[in-house]
Every structure is written in structure tokens, then in C-alpha cells.
């Protein structure tokens, strides 16, 4: 308002009406005067005649926050031609001042900003942007429409971000670096990896080790005090060394395992989205997103960053992961805010990224949550219970051993009347007895059980990643080994998911489409009208898109079905861009597995609307009452034509083709876009048959499952004939198997379902609810362990209901993947069989280790306890038992829990839900080997001196060393025998297992060092060659004994 040189003012701004501040309308029809601001300056004149010289027009309806920044006056200007300039200048100046007063009043009283007061920081401006990262993040996080308006709404934000809402950001390296420098990257701050020393400290917290450390300290102090240095320190240093060795191996193992889990967590976060940059649509990882990027979202996607809605249709967002509210949120122009971590339930849209990484609400939430693999699996929980029982038994025997060993000394003291007089040697003897008792507890407590589970699972997870299976939940590894039923999708799992239209029926003609001589051959068989409407339907009623790649060649984006249809349309001479420009899409109902159709409404250039529909042939054909005949004329469908079209659909289906019907209808002039898209009155354009070849190797994989006792059921949305053809080709549908359609399945009562489900092998035209119902019945009524595959958002309930949810890595939505336990990265059914094999391997490996450890536990307890009772001495000292403990716990777990799977695993029946973990076969092997080892130990204990001709003061030490050495070699060879619980040939594949061989060789070398060179610390003495030979032969004898024990008949999988 500084135009003082003009004779008359221009149009004056209109003051918006502020709700709640107005008085009642005056009789003269004018607008009531505000109580402050401009109402004070331009007070209502007292004369009714002068009031007409300046009046305010009525406030147009609208939101104050959207209008307040553009204040305008409405008034008659003709009367101003008679006002002299000086008076006008004074009036204008007064008006300018009071506009500022009004602005201040609106801001203070109503919280409304009339213009943007935001000033971008200098570093942001220097980088070429006009808004800071924090300001940008606050808009979406707080859903601040006022602040969004201040910045110029969506277009203003795009300008300030130096991006285009159609072409995206500039991809020059310098531009991307500047953008990342200002706004950050789309990564969450990870918690620091725990160091090795933290794991060492954690390993030292074990209660039994702390007791042994105390024993070692007392032994060290008393020993030095009584025998001097260094002789008196040997026992204490020996125990310390053993503890250090145990802690080092345990900590290193746990540290390596934690690194594996971090790598797996990174794999879980590898999510790809469609992004437009430099006008080119491309697939990229969400980690590479930057503010200003234009992201394309469809049903099932996870919103990868905070952003604003640009355009789209029927977008429903599940924000429960952030807000806890299960009610979906509608996102559109009026509510444009999209939050990172939420899920797209329906619709599709384009989004402008505004905040990434730790500036998003999801990022801040993730900062407070650390994901790790520390959760215990069901098997770990079960084995912890077993460990506690064994530990309590060990505690009882340890107490008895301590009492038996110490009662002789205490009795002698009592008889001599010296019960209160204790020498250093007496204290050391009691301390040694106590250390032996504590060490028995150490040996008895099988802390290696949970370790073995974790090691086996971590090893299996890493190997499964190489086999294209990403394990999201540790428990899935072990559960998959018990699976008895696999409910598999067809498309993309049993088939390649590389679809192409091979047959089409239009205008009454059925055409072969695959490899035609020329596109004109197909288009010539269609009338011009039919061809135009067919192309319009395919190019507009689609969730796919045809874009140009960097080389200028057309690239089709979308689901395999959409790609097949668009490729067909291009093949017959269609132009995607041209067709899309001819009409305007005004409403879309995306395809989902419940409706089994997709509908779109187009606004035609000449006015009016047209609806296009495509989907399952029987669904769309049922909505048609007309079709396009061979002349291109629209005629009514009679019974004969309907029967012919249904026959064509059936013929396509029997050839294992997936059929889709395309139709359209003109909408009435009074149709409103708020109404539902009509479900009837359509004109059939044509039917297409889409081929999706069966994956190589699927038939063999299905046969492998059947031989392994795993039933395979196919669940598909295709019609019954297509489903049967594919199922037969895959080997799923047998002569005595049934194929059932979803509607028929739904109508069955519980009793009928109980009779039907065991025979059912194919469920066609199924809905997500059908899949969920089937899985629930299999689990609860038939007690099956069920694995289910899924790729869509609607599959999430079934994936959660199943014992093992298997999501597809390529075709699967992020919602499906998050609901699953395992992600099949190559969408291949053969990979699912591999997962089952690894699951069985995990289960069996842990069983092998438990069998091995139980044997060591039983023998160690019996040897020391019986010896203490009958001889008053324990042949295995604390240091020796600690070494044995490490052999059977950490090293045993490493050796047996990392055995790779063999083909024999898939020739046995599954464990199932009610199977016992410790089987009769395991008890047979454990007791047989324990009896043998105890007999050897007892023979050496009683006849060893005679056998080796031992005499003199060192005879006991030599004998105890021989017993210790023999005991260790018994465990070494028992470890080899434990590689298979039923097969006699346990050497098969042994040289190929580098971990197992390394542990065996390392154990033998270290045992030699302990016996020959560490006698002062381990209470051993060097042995002769004969004594070494006898020790090794006694241990080796355990292998044929184990083989003979395996010949005792047992039911190998008696419900396991």
C-alpha cells in the first residue's frame, strides 16, 4: 500500500470473517464490524449515507488459516475518483498502519500467521534450498496444516526443496551430496555393537564360575602361605587358567554370533521402492532416499520416509505401528501427511519425501528400540528347563561328594580332639574337596544347551541366507523342522511369475498371441472401435506404468499380471502416453483378492464419465450384459454368447492359463464421483489368457516333501480349472486328492470341513479369509505344524496364524514380510523345501548335542561320586573337569550344532507338534555309551595300577592322569559317534566338515599339552607311549560299542 503516486487505489484486500467475532447482521444488509484491528481504524460511520462510501463484502466460506495470508478488501471504487490526492495519501497511510495492527491482532487472538515469517538458515540457502531439515520434518510429524500453508502448500515445499513433483530431484553427484549434507540420509542410528570385552564380562557373571574364582583365590592365598611361591600357587593358577580358557571361548563364540545377528538385521532392512528421479522411474533402496524424492506407493508398501501426498487414489494408511490406532487413515489432498513406518492398506499414490532417517517419527521411535537376536526360542526355553533339572541333580551329587570327601578329615579331627585346630594343609584339603564339588556342578549344569541352540540357529540362518531364505524369527528355524503341511501360493512360488498373454478372445475371435508374425495380424482382426476401447482399458485401468529407461527404451513397471497386459497392448500397436493423455483418471478402486477386480473411472474429453473394469473372468462376465461383436457393434449378451464366453474361459483355464476379462460402461450424466463404481451393466471387451510357467524343479521338490511326510496344498485365486492344471503339473494334485473352490469351502460346516480338509489338495478362487480358516483348522483340529506362503497384504492374518509364515521376497509386500517368520528371497518353492531341510537339521543337531552332553554328565557324576564314596578321593580334579566341561559344552556345541543337513533328513517323517525332544533312540544311545564309559573308568580306577604296573609315591597321580586322559578320548570318539543317532557309518562327510575336524584336532593337541607339559597346574604327569595308546584305544573302543548299541531296534520316530 505504498502507491502514493496513483490517483486512485487499486482493489483493496478483503478481510476474512473471523468466526465468533461478528455481531448480528445490520438491517442495511452490511457486514458487522469487527471489534478490533481494521474495525477500529475504519469504524462504522454514524451517517447511514456515508456508510455506503466504503463497505466490506461478505466473507466467502473457507478456512481462516488458508485465507488469512491474503487479506483483500471489496468495495465500490467509483466514488474514489472525486477524492483529492492529498486526502487519499493520508487515508492510505492510516489504512496501511491499521492493516499491520489487524495482522498483529489476528496473530495474537487467533494464532493465525498472515504471511510466512520463516527464514531459512544461511547454510541451507548456500546449498540451494529454502527450508531447513528440522522445519520440514516438523510439518509432517505434527501434521501442521497452518505451517504447510505458510510455506506455500505442496508446490511451495517442492520449490523450497528444489525438486519437481513430476520429474523428482536432480541426480548429479554434487546435488545429491549437498542434499544429503543438509537433510541427512534415510538410515536409523544403530546402537553401538557390543565389544568383545563386554561379552567377556558377561561370561564371568556365571554363578558357578564366580564360586570357582573365589576357590582359586583362597587356594592361591593359602597355598602360597603354606608352601611358598611358586609351588603353592599351582592349584590356584590352574583353576584361574581353566576359567580364563572357558570364558575366552564362550565370549568369542557369543561375540561372533552377535555380529551375525547384526548382519541379518541389516538384511531385514533392505527394502526397495519405486522412485522418480530426473524424470526416470527407478527401483532403489529406501536407505538412498532424500527429501525432494518422488516415491510411488502401492498396496502393501511400507511408507519409507515422512512425506506429503502428491496424487493418488483411494489411499488408506495403517498407522497402528506409530499411533496404536487400528482404524485406517484416509490420505488425500486434505490430509496429505504420510509417516515413515506406516503401511499402505489400499490404493496407490505419489509421495514427496520431506524427512528421512532420525528426523522422522519412526526414526525417533527406533532410536529407543534396539532389535537383536536375544529372544529365546521355544526350544531354548524347553532346554533351559532340562538344564535346570540336570543342574539340580548335579547340585545334589556335588553336595554328597563334598560330604563324602570331607567326612574322613573331619572325623579324624573329631577323634583327635582337634576339631577347632586347622592347619594350612587341612584348609587346602577341604578347599580342594569344595572345588571338586563346585566343578561337578559346573560339569553337571549343561549351560551348553542354550548355547548349542543359538549356535545352531545362527549357523543355519547364515547358511539359509546363502540359500535365498532370510530368517526374521529365530524360532522359525527349529519350527520349520517340525512342519507337516505347507500351504503354498501358486503365482510366483510354484510358477515363475514371468507372465505373458498367449491367447486372447475379442470381438468373438480367439487369437494366438505368443510370437505373432506382426502386431498388425492381431489388430487387423479387431474393429477400430474395439481396438481403441481395448487399448483405453488396458492403459488406463492399470496399476502399472510404461516409462522410458535411461537408454530411451520403454520399460514396463508393475505386477507381473499388469506387465503382461501392458506388454500385450504395446505389441498390438498401443501408445501408453498418448492414451493416458486423451482422458483423465478421476477415480480408482485398486485390485484386491477379495473383490477380484480393479475399476477405474475416466473423465472423457467431451464430457461425461466412462468406467473400466478388469478381473477374474467369472466375476467381470457376471457384471456384463453386452459385448462387442465381430463388426465392432455393441450387442446384448444372450445365453448362447454367454455360454460361448464361459466355454472359452474354461478352455483357457484347462491349458493352465490365468484368465482375465476386460469390460467397460458409459456412466449416466448425473453420476457423482462420490458414488460407488457400478457393479453391473458393463460391456465385455474381451478375455485374455496369461501363461505363467511352472518353475523348474518344483515337481521334484513336491515329491521330496511327500517322501518327508510333508503334505503340500496349493491355495490360489485362480479359477478351478487353471488351478487343477497347474497342480497336476507340479505333482500336488493326485488321483485321490480334491480341488475345491473358495465359495464351496466357505459354505461347509465344521463337521464337513473336518472330513474335507484331509483330502483337499487345491483351494481355488480363495479369499484371504479362506486361507486363514484353512490354516486355523489344520493347526487346531488336526494338530498339524503348518507353514504358509503369502505375498499380499491380505495374507498377513494367515501368515500370523501359521506356525511358520513364509513371505515372498520379490512379489511380497512389506506388510506380508513383516508378518512372516522367513522371507523367501527368490520366491521359489524349492527354497521352501531347503528351509524345511535346514529346520530339520537344526532340530537334529541339537538332539545330537544333547545326547552327547547327557553322556558326559552322567559319566562325570558317576565317576567322581563313586570314587569319592569308595576310595575317598576324586580322580578328576577341578582343573581337569573344567577342561572336560569346555569340551562338552562350547566345543561340543560348535562341532555338533554346525553339522550341515544331508538328504537323509528328508526321508524321515516330521517330528510334528506332539513329538518328544529327547527320544527313545537318544536314551538308548546315552545309556549304552554311559555304561561303557563308566565301566572303563571303574576298571581303570580299580585295576589300573595292576594293568600298568604302577608303584611308588607317583602311582596315584599317574593313574589319575590315565583316567583323565581316557575320559577325554572317550568324549572325543563319542563326539564322532554322535554325528548320527541312527546310522552306523558316522564317518560319512566328516572330512568335509572343517569346523568339526578343527575342533577334534584342537582338542587332541591341547589335551596332549595339558598332560605332558602342564602337570603342575592340571595335576597331571607325563604319560608313556603305552599309556597314551591304551587311553586312545579305550576311547576308540567307544565307536564300535556305539555302533552295536544302534543295532538295538527302536522306533526311530515314534512321535519323537
From TrEMBL:
Origin: domain of life: Eukaryota
TM ranges: 207-225, 237-255, 389-410, 430-460, 995-1014, 1026-1048
Positions of the UniProt region annotated as Disordered: 1-51
Gene Ontology CC annotation, any one: plasma membrane
Pfam families in the cross-refs: Cation_ATPase, Cation_ATPase_C, Cation_ATPase_N, E1-E2_ATPase, Hydrolase_3
UniProt topology in membrane: Multi-pass membrane protein
Listed EC numbers: 7.2.2.10
Domain Cation-transporting P-type ATPase N-terminal: from-to ranges: 153-224
Keywords assigned by UniProt, alphabetized: ATP-binding, Calcium, Calcium transport, Calmodulin-binding, Ion transport, Magnesium, Membrane, Metal-binding, Nucleotide-binding, Phosphoprotein, Translocase, Transmembrane, Transmembrane helix, Transport
Key word Ion transport present: yes
UniProt xrefs under CDD domains: P-type_ATPase_Ca_PMCA-like
Record InterPro entries: ATPase_P-typ_cation-transptr_C (IPR006068), ATPase_P-typ_cation-transptr_N (IPR004014), ATPase_P-typ_cyto_dom_N (IPR023299), ATPase_P-typ_P_site (IPR018303), ATPase_P-typ_TM_dom_sf (IPR023298), ATPase_P-typ_transduc_dom_A_sf (IPR008250), ATPase_P-type_domA (IPR059000), HAD-like_sf (IPR036412)
Similarity-based family: Belongs to the cation transport ATPase (P-type) (TC 3.A.3) family. Type IIB subfamily.
Record's protein name: Calcium-transporting ATPase
Organism name: Digitaria exilis
Amino acid at each position: 500500500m505504498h502507491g502514493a503516486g496513483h490517483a486512485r487505489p487499486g482493489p483493496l484486500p478483503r478481510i476474512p470473517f473471523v468466526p465468533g467475532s461478528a455481531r448480528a447482521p445490520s438491517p442495511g444488509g452490511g457486514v458487522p464490524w469487527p471489534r478490533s484491528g481494521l474495525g477500529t481504524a475504519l469504524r462504522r460511520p454514524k451517517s447511514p449515507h456515508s456508510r455506503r462510501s466504503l463497505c466490506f463484502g461478505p466473507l466467502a466460506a473457507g478456512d481462516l488459516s488458508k485465507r488469512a495470508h491474503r487479506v483483500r478488501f471489496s468495495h465500490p471504487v467509483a466514488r474514489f475518483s472525486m477524492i483529492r490526492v492529498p486526502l487519499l495519501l493520508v487515508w492510505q497511510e492510516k489504512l496501511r498502519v491499521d492493516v499491520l495492527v489487524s495482522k498483529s491482532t489476528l496473530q495474537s487472538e487467533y494464532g493465525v500467521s498472515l504471511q510466512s515469517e520463516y527464514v531459512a538458515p544461511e547454510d541451507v540457502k548456500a546449498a540451494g534450498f529454502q527450508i531447513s531439515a528440522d522445519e520440514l520434518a516438523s510439518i509432517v510429524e505434527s501434521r501442521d496444516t497452518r505451517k504447510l500453508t505458510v510455506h506455500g502448500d505442496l508446490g511451495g515445499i517442492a520449490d523450497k526443496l528444489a525438486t519437481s513433483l513430476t520429474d523428482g530431484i536432480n541426480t548429479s553427484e554434487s546435488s545429491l551430496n549437498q542434499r544429503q549434507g543438509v537433510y541427512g540420509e534415510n538410515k536409523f542410528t544403530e546402537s553401538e555393537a557390543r565389544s568383545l570385552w563386554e561379552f567377556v564380562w558377561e561370561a564371568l557373571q556365571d554363578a558357578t564360575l564366580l564360586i570357582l574364582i573365589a576357590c582359586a583365590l583362597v587356594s592361591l592365598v593359602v597355598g602360597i602361605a603354606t608352601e611358598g611361591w611358586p609351588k603353592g600357587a599351582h592349584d590356584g593358577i590352574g583353576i584361574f587358567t581353566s576359567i580364563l580358557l572357558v570364558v575366552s571361548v564362550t565370549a568369542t563364540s557369543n561375540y561372533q554370533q552377535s555380529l551375525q545377528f547384526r548382519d541379518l538385521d541389516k538384511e531385514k532392512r533392505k527394502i526397495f521402492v519405486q522412485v522418480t528421479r530426473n524424470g526416470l522411474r527407478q527401483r532403489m533402496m529406501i536407505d538412498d532416499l532424500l527429501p525432494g524424492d518422488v516415491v510411488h506407493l502401492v498396496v502393501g508398501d511400507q511408507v519409507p520416509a515422512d512425506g506429503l501426498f502428491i496424487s493418488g487414489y483411494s489411499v488408506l494408511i495403517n498407522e497402528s505401528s506409530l499411533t496404536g490406532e487400528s482404524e485406517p487413515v484416509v490420505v488425500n489432498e486434505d490430509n496429505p501427511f504420510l509417516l515413515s513406518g506406516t503401511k499402505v492398506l489400499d490404493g496407490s499414490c505419489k509421495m514427496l519425501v520431506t524427512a528421512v532417517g532420525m528426523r522422522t517419527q519412526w526414526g525417533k521411535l527406533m532410536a529407543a528400540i534396539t532389535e537383536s537376536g536375544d529372544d529365546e526360542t521355544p526350544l531354548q526355553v524347553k532346554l533351559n528347563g532340562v538344564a535346570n533339572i540336570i543342574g539340580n541333580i548335579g547340585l545334589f551329587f556335588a553336595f554328597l561328594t563334598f560330604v563324602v570327601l570331607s567326612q574322613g578329615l573331619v572325623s579324624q579331627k573329631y577323634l583327635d580332639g582337634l576339631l577347632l585346630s586347622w592347619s594350612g594343609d587341612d584348609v587346602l584339603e577341604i578347599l580342594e574337596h569344595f572345588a571338586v564339588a563346585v566343578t561337578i556342578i559346573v560339569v553337571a549344569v549343561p549351560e551348553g544347551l542354550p548355547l548349542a541352540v543359538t549356535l545352531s540357529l545362527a549357523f543355519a540362518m547364515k547358511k539359509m541366507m546363502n540359500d535365498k531364505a532370510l530368517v526374521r524369527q529365530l524360532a522359525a528355524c527349529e519350527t520349520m523342522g517340525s512342519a507337516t503341511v505347507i500351504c503354498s501360493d501358486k503365482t510366483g512360488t510354484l510358477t515363475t511369475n514371468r507372465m505373458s498373454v498367449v491367447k486372447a478372445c475379442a470381438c468373438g475371435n480367439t487369437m494366438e498371441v505368443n510370437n505373432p508374425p506382426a502386431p498388425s495380424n492381431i489388430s487387423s482382426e479387431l474393429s477400430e472401435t474395439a481396438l481403441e476401447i481395448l487399448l483405453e482399458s488396458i492403459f488406463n485401468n492399470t496399476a502399472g506404468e510404461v516409462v522410458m529407461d535411461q537408454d530411451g527404451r520403454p520399460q514396463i513397471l508393475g505386477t507381473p499380471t499388469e506387465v503382461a497386459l501392458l506388454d500385450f497392448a504395446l505389441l498390438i500397436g498401443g501408445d501408453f502416453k498418448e492414451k493416458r493423455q486423451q482422458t483423465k483418471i478421476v477415480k480408482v478402486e485398486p485390485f484386491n483378492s477379495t473383490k477380484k477386480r480393479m475399476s477405474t473411472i475416466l473423465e472423457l474429453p467431451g464430457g461425461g464419465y466412462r468406467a473400466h473394469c478388469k478381473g477374474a473372468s467369472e466375476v467381470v462376465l457376471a457384471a456384463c450384459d453386452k459385448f462387442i461383436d465381430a463388426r465392432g457393434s455393441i450387442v446384448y449378451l444372450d445365453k448362447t454368447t454367454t455360454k460361448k464366453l464361459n466355454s472359452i474361459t474354461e478352455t483357457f483355464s484347462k491349458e493352465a492359463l490365468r484368465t482375465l476379462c476386460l469390460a467397460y460402461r458409459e456412466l449416466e450424466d448425473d453420476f457423482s464421483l462420490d458414488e460407488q463404481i457400478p457393479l453391473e451393466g458393463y460391456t465385455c471387451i474381451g478375455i485374455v489368457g496369461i501363461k505363467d510357467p511352472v518353475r523348474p524343479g518344483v515337481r521334484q521338490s513336491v515329491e521330496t516333501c511327500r517322501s518327508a511326510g510333508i503334505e503340500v496344498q496349493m491355495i490360489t485365486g485362480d479359477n478351478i480349472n487353471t488351478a487343477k492344471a497347474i497342480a497336476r503339473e507340479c505333482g500336488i494334485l493326485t488321483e485321490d486328492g480334491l480341488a475345491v473352490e473358495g465359495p464351496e469351502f466357505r459354505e461347509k460346516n465344521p463337521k464337513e470341513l473336518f472330513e474335507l480338509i484331509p483330502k483337499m489338495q487345491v483351494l481355488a478362487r480363495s479369499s484371504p479369509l479362506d486361507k486363514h480358516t484353512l490354516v486355523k483348522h489344520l493347526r487346531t483340529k488336526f494338530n498339524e505344524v503348518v507353514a504358509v506362503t503369502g505375498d499380499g497384504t491380505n495374507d498377513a492374518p494367515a501368515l500370523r496364524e501359521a506356525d511358520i509364515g513364509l513371505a515372498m521376497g520379490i512379489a511380497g509386500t512389506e506388510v506380508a514380510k513383516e508378518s512372516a517368520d522367513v522371507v523367501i528371497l527368490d520366491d521359489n518353492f524349492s527354497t521352501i523345501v531347503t528351509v524345511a531341510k535346514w529346520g530339520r537339521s537344526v532340530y537334529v543337531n541339537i538332539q545330537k548335542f544333547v545326547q552327547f552332553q547327557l553322556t558326559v554328565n552322567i559319566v562325570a557324576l558317576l565317576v567322581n561320586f563313586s570314587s569319592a564314596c569308595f576310595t575317598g578321593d576324586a580322580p578328576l580334579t577341578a582343573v581337569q573337569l573344567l577342561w572336560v566341561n569346555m569340551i562338552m559344552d562350547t566345543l561340543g556345541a560348535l562341532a555338533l550344532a554346525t553339522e550341515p543337513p544331508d538328504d537323509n533328513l528328508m526321508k524321515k517323517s516330521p517330528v510334528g507338534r506332539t513329538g518328544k525332544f529327547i527320544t527313545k533312540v537318544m536314551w538308548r544311545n546315552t545309556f549304552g555309551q554311559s555304561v561303557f564309559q563308566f565301566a572303563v573308568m571303574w576298571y581303570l580306577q580299580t585295576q589300573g595300577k595292576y594293568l600298568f604296573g604302577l608303584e611308588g609315591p607317583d602311582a596315584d597321580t599317574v593313574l589319575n592322569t590315565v583316567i583323565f586322559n581316557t575320559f577325554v578320548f572317550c568324549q572325543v570318539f563319542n563326539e564322532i559317534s554322535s554325528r548320527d543317532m541312527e546310522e552306523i557309518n558316522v564317518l560319512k562327510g566328516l572330512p568335509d566338515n572343517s569346523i568339526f575336524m578343527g575342533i577334534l584336532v584342537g582338542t587332541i593337541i591341547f589335551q596332549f599339552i595339558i598332560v605332558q607339559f602342564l602337570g603342575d597346574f592340571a595335576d597331571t604327569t607325563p604319560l608313556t607311549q603305552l599309556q597314551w595308546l591304551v587311553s586312545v584305544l579305550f576311547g576308540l573302543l567307544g565307536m564300535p560299542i556305539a555302533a552295536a548299541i544302534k543295532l538295538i531296534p527302536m522306533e526311530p520316530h515314534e512321535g519323537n
